[in-house]
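[step 3/7] inverse_fold.run input=structure_tokens len=214
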């Protein structure tokens, strides 16, 4: 997989997310995240699942990356709940077992955090829909490692590219690939006239310090 092919993924995924309104940009009327942060961007990649053609394109991108980078993968794991749907599609295309990881163990029944059949030392690729700070994604990785599974890497649809997330992944020694990212999204949004150059400056400032942006 050459750089041109990777750049195509990034550009095409960004355009697809914008056109489906899975990602919305609104610098003049920011969204409020659950954390309380004000943000000019909101991402809900689950909207992809409602469009058969788009979800197939995204699943194919995941599949091609996994075949290229992780040809020894044995199980695909999705992070609940956002990556269960797309993760299952990827596992189906690769003809591999699928499992998913809850944010925490259930309080009843078998009290599982990992749902599905696993065996120790299996090689896992983790599928995620969105990377913000990386904490929830890495919580899933922790649960998998505690079950003596080998994590080859994680692939996500989109990342905000926040410094804190990059630090968290490096600290936990996890290889992260994403189909697209924040900078690519902003460039594509300008290209298709979704936003103005002035808006792009506001969006870039948010990305530099999201916690204190207003």
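[step 3/7] decode complete -> sequence:
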């Amino acid at each position: 997989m050459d750089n041109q092919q990777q750049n195509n993924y990034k550009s095409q995924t960004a355009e697809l997310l914008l056109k489906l309104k899975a990602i919305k940009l609104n610098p003049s009327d920011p969204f409020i995240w659950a954390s309380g942060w004000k943000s000019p961007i909101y991402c809900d990649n689950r909207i992809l699942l409602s469009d058969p053609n788009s979800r197939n394109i995204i699943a194919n991108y995941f599949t091609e990356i996994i075949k290229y980078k992780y040809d020894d993968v044995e199980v695909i794991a999705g992070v609940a709940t956002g990556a269960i749907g797309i993760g299952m599609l990827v596992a189906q295309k690769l003809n591999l077992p699928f499992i998913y990881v809850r944010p925490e163990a259930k309080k009843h029944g078998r009290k599982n955090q990992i749902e599905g059949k696993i065996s120790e030392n299996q090689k896992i690729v983790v599928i995620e829909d969105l990377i913000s700070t990386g904490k929830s994604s890495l919580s899933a990785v922790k649960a998998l490692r505690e079950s003596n599974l080998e994590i080859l890497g994680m692939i996500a649809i989109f990342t905000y590219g926040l410094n804190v997330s990059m630090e968290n992944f490096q600290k936990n020694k996890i290889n992260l690939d994403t189909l697209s990212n924040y900078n690519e999204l902003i460039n594509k949004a300008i290209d298709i006239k979704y936003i103005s150059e002035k808006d792009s400056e506001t969006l870039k400032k948010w990305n530099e310090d999201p916690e204190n942006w207003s």
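[step 4/7] annotate
Helices lie at 3-19, 52-69, 84-94, 135-146, 163-171, 182-191, 197-208.
The mean pLDDT is 94.
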